[in-house]
Amino acid sequence: MDNGSIISAVFAAIILVLAIITVAKAVRIVSQANAGIVERLGRYHRTLSPGLALVMPFIDRVLPLIDMREQVQPFQPQPVITSDNLVVNIDTVVYYQVTDPKAASYEIQNPIAAIEQITVTTLRNVIGSLDLEQTLTSRDHINSQLRATLDEATTKWGIRVNRVELKSIDPPPSVVEAMEKQMKAERDKRATILTAEGYRQSQILEAEGEKQSAILRAEGQKQSAILEAEGEATAIATVTTAVHTSDVDQRVLAYQYLQQLPTIANGTASKLWVLPAELTDAMRLVADGFSTPRRD
After folding, report:
1. Which of 59, 159, 251, 264 is the most buried (most CB within 10 A)?
2. Phi first, then psi: what are they for 292, rounded to 5°?
3. Closest to 62 (Cα-Cα) out of 71, 52, 76
């Protein structure tokens, strides 16, 4: 092989390598949820969307792809002074998304650092107008103000702040200790109140029970006395009816009374006996019957 053939073969190989490099540089594949900025001779030319794209080698330059998805950026806890001169450490996290790749590439050099600085400044302005108690209970208010301020500042950068969250608000250790003591005192107070209320309710229920028991006993005694009186009245009425209907002789009544005298005498009641006039007359008849001489 002569020198001309060798030079031709080398030249052809160089042309082939350059062609492969040119094709490789001319073809760009942009993945989903990404965007690419194309600069032509140092100036912005166009934005590549996801898929296959062709650029001019050695003339066009594709910048690093930009992620268009929502991203989460946590920030280090920042010391902030409240209106009552207490230093609290606030840990924040920002959810943001690139909406304009061109503005995000050319309007701001370091968007994350800029967002962090705006977050810290806004936090100091918002927390500085609140005391510690308001700071601990106004997370939604603080979040909304942070989001509004950040969204207004980042719109021109092609970035949208979707939301801002306060991960934690840490008061000074001395304040935390005082708050724990206060919460413990409140718990003890509620426990004492509940115990006293329970004892009060038990006493009320016990008194109500005794009242109902006394009422029931009185009702029972009343019903017993009524039934006993009704029984005695019935017995008296029965005896009276029997006496009147059978026309018992007074001497028989006197005799029955005499039979009950021993029982009456054994009683613990008064020994003074009162005899009805009819019974006295009957007893006189009995005496006359015993004193009348017997006829043969």
Report:
1. 159
2. -70, 130
3. 52
